[in-house]
């Protein structure tokens, strides 16, 4: 769907409260410190070990497959930053922010404060073209209205965006780095900071440390050509992996407008899509394949989302709320079909 008026059943303010009580009774809001300690150790251990292998291999063409593996490791670290941003690991802000700054700014080169601000706005109004920054007009467009407003190169891309989607994701890593820097230094005309960031100086220092460490290591152990090739493969595939992890969750799902009046439960469920696939998909997508449960309970530990799924699905059936769930390939097909449909009026005109 592009934009639509969703038909909401009679408002029942206690619907979400009843579901929350069922989930709480199952103990699914409880933190999983042991699981997270193991996950953090394994993920960061693999990340550090990967860089150690890069140093050991030195100036060799074997660095190209290593860049592929490091793209996977980097995305898995980014998933830890996502969990920290939602306070899935720790209840208190301090430890959560520390974990997010290490995973995001230092390890990945992504501003944690910028991402939290952007991601919180997405969670508050998922798939709302005027409120959700993830479906705002940009390199891609998500509604007929956004497509109609394109000009020049943007219009050419909008006509073909379904075909360009995966190639464009190869630039997503670079775009995230640029957006992070702009968020930390950007000001409004009156001098105010454009993006609210709690620890701006610390974030800036950590981003500089990441850039210096990343580029310094590559150029220290490889020839300039191989270093640049490693960076291109690593950053390109990291962006592709990140995009492929987030795209199945909402793209092609209903997009509420100002005319729609949905309660919290329906707003989150109707705009989200789960992805089936077993434990491999759970790990590969950082448990974001349980997107409905994650949107309903953002601070629920990642390991509990799979257990919450049957409770939420059964409750949605009781309430007559559609619960979207599909396979991974089908989720991409639906997302691409939506993008292709949005560009249809431009192709016909």
Outline the structure in words:
The structure is a single chain. This protein has 349 residues and is mostly helical. Helices cover 65% and strands 1% of the residues. The chain contains 17 helices and 2 strands. A two-stranded parallel sheet has the order 1-2. The two termini are 20 Å apart.
Measured between the Cα atoms of the first and last residue, the distance is: 20 Å
Strand content range: under 5%
Secondary structure: helix percent: 55-70%
Order of helices and strands: HHHHHHHHHHHHEHHHEHH
Calculate the mean pLDDT score and round it.
93
Physical arrangement of strands within the biggest beta sheet: 1-2
Strand elements, count:
2
Task: Find the structural class using helix and strand composition.
Answer: mainly alpha
Number of helices: 17
Radius of gyration: 21 Å
Major sheet attributes: 2 strands, parallel
Q: What is the global morphology?
A: globular
Low-confidence stretches: 1-5
């Amino acid at each position: 769907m592009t934009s639509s008026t969703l038909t909401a059943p009679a408002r029942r303010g206690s619907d979400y409260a009843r579901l929350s009580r069922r989930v709480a009774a199952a103990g699914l809001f409880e933190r999983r410190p042991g699981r997270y300690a193991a996950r953090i150790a394994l993920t960061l251990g693999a990340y550090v070990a990967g860089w150690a292998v890069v140093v050991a291999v030195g100036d060799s063409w074997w660095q190209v497959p290593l860049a592929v593996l490091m793209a996977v490791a980097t995305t898995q670290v980014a998933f830890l930053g996502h969990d920290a941003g939602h306070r899935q690991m720790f209840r208190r802000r301090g430890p959560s922010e520390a974990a997010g700054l290490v995973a995001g700014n230092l390890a990945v080169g992504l501003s944690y404060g910028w991402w939290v601000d952007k991601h919180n706005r997405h969670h508050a109004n998922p798939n709302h073209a005027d409120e959700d920054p993830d479906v705002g007009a940009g390199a891609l467009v998500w509604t007929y209205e956004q497509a109609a407003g394109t000009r020049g190169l943007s219009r050419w891309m909008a006509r073909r965006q379904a075909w360009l989607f995966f190639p464009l994701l190869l630039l997503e890593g670079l775009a995230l780095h640029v957006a992070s820097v702009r968020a930390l230094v950007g000001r409004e005309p009156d001098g105010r900071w454009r993006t609210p960031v709690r620890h701006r100086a610390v974030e800036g220092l950590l981003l500089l440390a990441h850039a210096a460490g990343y580029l310094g290591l590559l150029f220290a152990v490889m020839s300039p050509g191989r270093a640049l090739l490693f960076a291109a493969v690593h950053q390109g595939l990291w962006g592709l992996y990140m995009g492929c992890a987030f795209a199945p969750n909402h793209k092609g799902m209903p997009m509420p407008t100002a005319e729609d009046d949905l309660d919290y439960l329906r707003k989150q469920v109707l705009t989200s899509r789960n992805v089936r696939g077993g434990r491999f998909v759970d790990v590969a997508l950082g448990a974001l394949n349980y997107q409905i449960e994650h949107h309903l309970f953002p601070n629920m530990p990642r390991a509990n989302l799979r257990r919450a799924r049957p409770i939420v699905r059964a409750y949605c059936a009781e309430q007559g709320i559609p619960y979207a769930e599909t396979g991974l390939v089908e989720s991409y097909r639906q997302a691409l079909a939506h993008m292709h449909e949005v560009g249809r009026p431009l192709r016909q005109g």
